[in-house]
Specification:
The complex is a heterodimer of chains A (452) and B (455). With 452 residues, chain A is an alpha/beta fold. Chain A has three domains: 7-151, Alpha-D-Glucose-1,6-Bisphosphate, Chain A, domain 3; 157-366, Alpha-D-Glucose-1,6-Bisphosphate, Chain A, domain 3 (3-Layer(aba) Sandwich); 372-451, TATA-Binding Protein. Chain A contains 15 helices and 21 strands. In chain A, the strands form four sheets. In chain A, strands 1-2-6-5-3-4-7 form a seven-stranded mixed beta sheet, with helices on both faces. In chain A, a hairpin with an 8-residue loop joins strand 5 and strand 6 (106-112). The longest helix of chain A has 16 residues, at 436-451. In chain A, 55% of the residues are buried. The model of chain A has no long low-confidence stretch (mean pLDDT 94). The two termini of chain B are 15 Å apart. By secondary structure, chain B is of the alpha/beta class. Chain B has four domains: 7-152, Alpha-D-Glucose-1,6-Bisphosphate, subunit A, domain 3 (Alpha-D-Glucose-1,6-Bisphosphate, Chain A, domain 3, 3-Layer(aba) Sandwich); 157-258, Alpha-D-Glucose-1,6-Bisphosphate, subunit A, domain 3 (Alpha-D-Glucose-1,6-Bisphosphate, Chain A, domain 3), CATH 3.40.120; 262-368, Alpha-D-Glucose-1,6-Bisphosphate, Chain A, domain 3 (3-Layer(aba) Sandwich), CATH 3.40.120.10; 373-453, TATA-Binding Protein (2-Layer Sandwich). The mean pLDDT of chain B is 93. A seven-stranded mixed beta sheet of chain B has the order 1-2-6-5-3-4-7, sandwiched between helices. A five-stranded mixed beta sheet of chain B has the order 9-8-10-11-12. A five-stranded antiparallel beta sheet of chain B has the order 17-21-20-19-18, covered by helices on one side. In chain B, helix 1 crosses helix 2 (52-67), helix 1 (24-37) crosses helix 4 and helix 3 (80-89) packs across helix 5. The radius of gyration of chain B is 22 Å and the shape is globular. The chains are: A alpha/beta (452), B alpha/beta (455). The A-B interface holds A 17-20, 23-25, 27-29, 32, 50-52, 54-59, 61-63, 65-66, 104-105, 107, 136, 138-144, 146-147, 213 and B 17-20, 23-25, 27-29, 32, 51-53, 55-57, 59-60, 62-64, 66-67, 105-108, 137, 139-143, 145-148, 209-211.
């Protein structure tokens, strides 16, 4: 029986079902703890298009004002845009109200430091301790700050940063025919303008009404993007883009209406990024070895981290990486724009690659190093996790083992990665190999060892 | 010090010094209790005075009400009476006025209002308190959450209502000096000047959030200090001083003398009873006996209830509105039936000006018609356990007077009375003593000494 986590205070902030679990009161106190932690000064607050956004934002504003902070209310904006703006105006920090790809009944507070990035592991623990101690800064009447609305400028700041890293004229000249599905999320307020006004695309868009609910499952994956694929077919678009509700993740549909594998989305971005900026690559343990092949072509190194955007970002910062991301989760992180997942960078990179090479999306994907990937879930009972991992490791004594996040076993031409889910008692199994047969065989053997 | 905390949670609502007792958490939880308490599915009207902390409190109130499924109608920075008026025309389930009224700037408070714009009865506020203490709030599902909209028209509708009761243009003949104390009366009166061309001279007019020009106390001393020197040079006929949310007002006469706050209620009782003789005047045990004299002139009678807004609200609820002439306190806070019994300083001012017009006399002369009474007020720090002892001692010491024990002890004689009671808002005993003619100095000193001997 899977236990659903209706409230989770964890890696990137606090997330839960609204308002029963993520209550206005909890939200207020978390915001007040945050305001206490970052100190008096400006805090940028924005949100995605969820129905619970305004209610929670009032609680956040209340907590921040009570801690003596000033609130810069940027309204509905993509998460990366909020993050960029925090840094741009030299705010003390930022709060994004978005549960990203989670269903509509969820919402969350994503917390950003003054660089507009997720807090590191140590800062997060300090903040959570502060929250639990309830020892908040309490501003008096004379110390209470202001709320200012600032809904225009952040978009332009973000778009300018992205445009600076691609050949804009080259893209504009092509007048690409593009399809878009913004899931009625935060992308709705920015992506059409970005594609049409900044990149001169001919756009056909669905789900760009920020006042409406999500028309599909919020996570952009092959089985949820039927409408976009149909739109591509109907309009003859050269590419289709799909965002999640806070527009940090991107899924791509090729000109034939096929949804790209997320690892390929990342691989294409890495290909583009390494051509324009120097530096290494950071990806999580579950990301395709195609990234290693591409990096090798540029003489660059690949660092691997545990799964989770915060983990990738932390290592990227440490090694001053050129680009990074998580293949499985569909996120492209390009620090020259901002050290966070950014669907706008990913879109611009792909269009730039198409403009430069004259190739179609399917041709670009075909030219990537080819691997076959398989994944699945194995339920397990509490207490048996260690034994399962050990059985797997003993089953492949010749493989190189990496235990930084679950267990990853590597061979020169294939790998298997097994890790437990953060939210359910499930093991996630990922396999990659050069051929269909090899992948199938590795997956079957691993499955046998884990369920045996 | 014990009992000196900057937080008070009571039947009157939530009140305290922001950041020094009153926190954002208290505000949000109390608003959630109110959102749970009132009828579901109907909007709630919210307004606030200009205190900087008001914005913080407003954010918490909006969040809590939306979480309970109420649409929020935001009136912005307005007086408490404007919120109360708006409630009557918006089919709202209730309202919250965020204002610490006449308290210093560091304070703030939530004032809870029923669907007719009146404060909650004791039974209602008791239920609200229980919900707050239980913290079992009725939140709705994510797709049922309330929404927020602004209503910028409330101020003008309020002024329309005032103009329907008072012949406002006819008051142009008076030059009136008004101290707005940087509060909401400035917004209202500026608009009244625009619409009706009254000759109002506003001072301390800038609406301020942090520092008021002076304490927003509506006392005779304060109004004399602020307006006294201006009255003659400006050749003004009357002067008024409002607290921050304009529910209270103090007066200065054409000579620059501060008018005792005790006189506002008898004055308005006179005005109201002259239009409806024989009606009831509701006041508390601590206000001037002049009230009985004024009421007697018009065949009215005075009903005296314990001190505090709650007792007045409960007394009002026991009568039909047309039976009541006026209700109020010796603080200058007065409720009139034309305004469905809300404390409204602006309405009080217009009523006084109307009286001056009708009787053709400036304020000072108008007041000189009343027999002189002298009131003395004092306070002594409280030793809670010994209060009953003190009251019994006083009871035994004055066996010849008429006794009323509904709120502490009030003893009255034909020409004088005293009232000794425990404050609702501060850890003190209040001693009030009044006499026709000269001040009852000896009686007052005896009472104060006695009270001190038990502290």
């Amino acid at each position: 029986m899977p236990r659903e986590h209706l409230l989770k205070i964890g890696v990137s902030g606090v997330r839960g079902v609204v308002p029963e679990f993520l209550t206005p009161s909890l939200t207020l106190h978390f915001a007040q703890a945050f305001g206490t932690y970052v100190g008096r000064g400006r805090v940028v607050v924005g949100r995605d298009t969820r129905k619970s956004g305004p209610m929670l934002q009032h609680a956040v504003n209340c907590g921040l004002l009570a801690a003596g902070c000033d609130v810069v209310d940027v309204g509905i904006l993509p998460t990366p845009t909020i993050q960029i703006y925090v840094e741009h105006i030299r705010a003390r920090g930022g709060i994004g109200l978005t549960a990203s790809h989670n269903p509509a009944e969820y919402n969350a507070l994503k917390l950003f430091n003054k660089e507009g990035q997720f807090f590191n592991h140590y800062e997060r623990n300090e903040l959570i301790d502060l929250y639990h101690q309830s020892d908040f800064a309490q501003a008096t009447n004379a110390e209470i700050g202001h709320v200012t609305k600032d809904e225009g400028t952040a978009k332009a700041v973000h778009i300018d940063r992205v445009l600076a890293k691609v050949d804009v004229d080259r893209i504009r000249r092509r007048k690409f025919r593009v399809a878009l599905d913004a899931v009625n999320g935060a992308g709705s307020v920015m992506t059409p303008g970005f594609l049409v006004d900044s990149l001169h695309c001919r756009l056909d868009a669905i789900s760009i009404d920020p006042t409406k609910v999500f028309p599909r499952i919020a996570e952009p994956r092959p089985d949820t993007l039927g409408d976009l694929a149909a739109l591509v077919g109907k309009t003859g678009a050269e590419v289709g883009f799909a965002q999640d509700p806070d527009a940090d993740r991107l899924a791509i549909v090729d000109e034939k209406g096929r949804v790209l594998d997320n690892d390929d989305v990342l691989a294409l971005a890495v290909l583009r990024a390494l051509a324009v900026v120097p530096g290494d690559v950071v990806v999580n343990l579950t990301t395709s070895a195609a990234i290693d092949d591409i990096a090798l072509g540029f003489g660059r190194k690949v660092y691997r981290t545990p799964v989770g955007e915060a983990n990738v970002v932390e290592t990227m910062q440490a090694v001053k990486a050129a680009i990074g991301g998580e293949g499985s989760a569909g996120g492209v992180i390009f620090p020259a724009v901002q050290l966070c997942r950014d669907s706008f960078t990913a879109m611009a990179f792909l269009l730039d690659l198409m403009a430069e090479t004259g190739k179609t999306v399917s041709e670009l994907v075909a030219a990537l190093p080819q691997y076959v990937r398989k994944s699945g879930k194995v339920p397990f009972e509490h207490g048996r996790l260690g034994g399962l991992m050990q059985a797997l490791e003993e089953g492949f004594p010749e493989a190189e083992a990496d235990r930084t996040d679950g267990l990853k076993l590597l061979w020169p031409d294939r790998w298997v990665h097994v890790r437990s889910s953060n939210t359910e008692p499930l093991l996630r199994v990922f396999v990659e190999a050069k051929t269909e047969e090899a992948a199938e065989k590795l997956y079957a053997t691993s499955w046998g060892l884990l369920t045996g | 010090m014990r009992g000196d905390s900057g937080l008070r949670i009571s039947h009157v609502g939530l009140r305290g010094i922001v950041g020094r007792g009153l926190t954002a958490g208290h505000i949000l939880d109390f608003a959630a209790a109110f959102g749970t308490f009132i009828e579901p599915g109907r909007p709630v009207v919210v307004g606030r005075d200009p205190r900087a902390s008001g914005r913080m409190a407003w954010e918490g109130v909006a969040s809590a009400l939306m979480a309970c499924g109420h649409n929020v109608i935001d009136l912005g920075v307005v007086s408490t009476p404007v919120v109360q008026h708006a409630l009557q025309n918006l089919d709202a389930a209730g309202g919250i006025a965020i204002s610490a009224s006449h308290n210093p700037a560091e304070w703030n408070a939530l004032r809870f209002l029923g669907p007719r714009g009146t404060y909650l009865s004791t039974a209602e506020s008791g239920e609200l308190l229980d919900i707050y203490h239980l913290r079992k709030f009725r939140f709705v599902a994510w797709d049922q959450l309330g929404e927020l909209r602004s209503d910028a028209g409330a101020l003008d509708r309020y002024i329309d209502d005032l103009a329907a009761v008072f012949d406002v243009p006819s008051l142009r003949e008076f030059r009136v000096v008004v101290d707005c104390c940087n509060g909401t009366s400035s917004l209202i009166l500026r608009r009244v000047i625009e619409r009706f061309g009254l000759d109002l001279v506003l001072i301390n007019e800038r609406v301020e959030g942090v520092q008021f020009a002076h304490e927003p106390t509506t006392s005779a001393r304060m109004v004399e200090l602020q307006l006294g020197p201006l009255m003659k040079p400006l050749r003004a006929h009357a002067g008024f001083l409002f607290d921050v949310d304009s529910d209270r007002v103090a007066m200065a006469d054409e000579q620059g003398r501060g008018v005792s706050e005790e006189l506002m209620l008898p004055l308005l009782a006179d005005h109201q009873l002259s239009r409806g003789p024989g009606k009831i005047v509701i006041s508390n045990l601590s206000s001037s006996a002049l009230l009985e004299e004024v009421a007697a002139r018009h065949g009215g009678r005075v009903l005296r209830v314990p001190v505090g807004r709650q007792a007045a609200m409960d007394a009002l609820a026991a009568y039909r509105p047309e039976q009541i002439a006026v209700a109020g306190e010796g603080t200058g806070a007065v409720m009139m039936p034309q305004f469905r019994f809300i404390y409204d300083g602006i309405a009080s001012m217009l009523a006084v000006l109307t009286m001056m017009k009708e009787r053709g006399r400036p304020l000072g002369e108008l007041l000189s018609e009343y027999p002189p009474f002298s009131i003395l007020k004092g306070e002594v720090r409280l030793a809670t356990p010994r209060v009953p002892e003190l009251l019994l001692d006083l009871l035994a010491s004055y066996p010849d007077g008429k006794i009323d024990r509904t709120d502490g002890l009030r003893v009255s004689w034909p020409d004088r009375w005293f009232h000794v009671r425990v404050s609702h808002t501060e850890p003190i005993i209040r001693v009030i003593c009044e006499q026709r003619g000269a001040p009852p100095q000896a009686l007052f000193e005896t009472l104060m000494d006695k009270a001190r001997s038990y502290s």
